[in-house]
Amino acid sequence: MEFDLIARHFTRATPGAVLGVGDDCALLAPTPGMQLAVSSDMLLEGRHFSPQDSPAGIGHKSLAVNLSDLAAMGATPRWATLAIALPEENDAWLTAFARGLFRMADMHGIELVGGDTTRGALTISIPVLGEVPPGVALRRAGAQAGDDVWVSGMIGSAALALAYRQGRLFMEQIDAARVLPALYLPTPRVELGIALRGIATSAIDLSDGLLGDLGHVLERSGVGATLEFSTLPTLPVVQHYLHEAVARDCVLAGGDDYELCFTAPAGKRDAVTAAAQSAGVPVTRIGLITAEPGLAVIDTNGQPLTIERTGYDHFAA
Ligand code: ADP
Ligand code: MG
Question: Do 119 and 59 belong together in one domain?
Fold first, then answer.
C-alpha cells in the first residue's frame, strides 16, 4: 500500500537529480564549487495546523516554511525530501496535499527526491537542500553597528489571523479575510534572499516573531538595535486594529510572517532597493543596528515602548 501511495502521490520527474524517488537513496550532484545549505522544520497537527485545515494549504505551508529558511540563507532551492506520518490512507486528502506541495515546489524549482511515509498522528518534516556560492550565505552573525535593519513584505498579519482564529480578537469577517492568507498560504522570499547575496550583512526569516528573531541576529552578531514602531510595515487592516494590545503584540512578536529581516550597510540602500525590485518584493527600513547590545522599540517621539512578549517560545507552558 505504501509503495502505491508514494508512486501515486509523490513521484514526479526530477531532472535536477541523478536519481529521485524509488531507490534506497536519492543521488544528487551538487553544482561544482557551490556549498549546500540544509535545513528542516517539522510541522505537527495541533501545533502548526489543525485537522480541519485545507490539505492543499498544509502542503503549501509545509514546504513554504522550509523554503523560507533557504531564503534567509540566500540559497537557491534544489532538492527536498518528505517525511510524513498519516493517521489513515485518505486518497482525496493526499491528492490535495500533493497539489499544494508541488505547486509551491514548482514555483521555486525545488524537486522532491525522496522521503518516508508511515502511519501516525499527522506529522510532516521536509528537509530541504539549496546551493549558495562560498562566502556569500546570509548568516546571522554579520550585522554591524550602523547597519540599517530591513524587513520584507508586511508583518503581523498571520499572527492577527491566528488571534482571530483562537478568539483572542474580534474582527469583522471582511477584515479577517484579508489576513487569513498570510497564516495559511505564506510566501517564502526565495528570490529576495538570492538577490541580497553580497549586499545584506545578516538575515533571518521571521517565523517566531520580529523581536525574538531579530534578537537571535543581535546575539550572534554581538550588537543591539533600535526599531521605530511607526515604520513597521503592516497591512491597513492590521493598522485598523492597532489600538488593541493584542494587535501590537502580533506586529512585534507574532509568528508565522515568513518575511526576511536583514541588515545592510547604509551605503547599500540603493542596492537593497534594486534587489527588492528585482525580486518583486517590497522592503522597508525599520531601524538601526547599534554597538550597545539590547533591542529597543521607540515611538515617533523617540520614547521607548513597553514590550510584553518578545516572541513565540515553543517550550513555554
Ligand atoms: P525504505 O524502506 O528503503 O525506507 P521506502 O519504502 O520507505 O524505502 O521508500 C521507497 C522510496 O520512496 C524511497 O526512494 C523513498 O525515498 C521514497 N519515499 C517514501 N516516502 C516518500 C514520500 N512521502 N515522498 C517522497 N518520496 C518518498
Ligand atoms: Mg522508508
Answer: yes
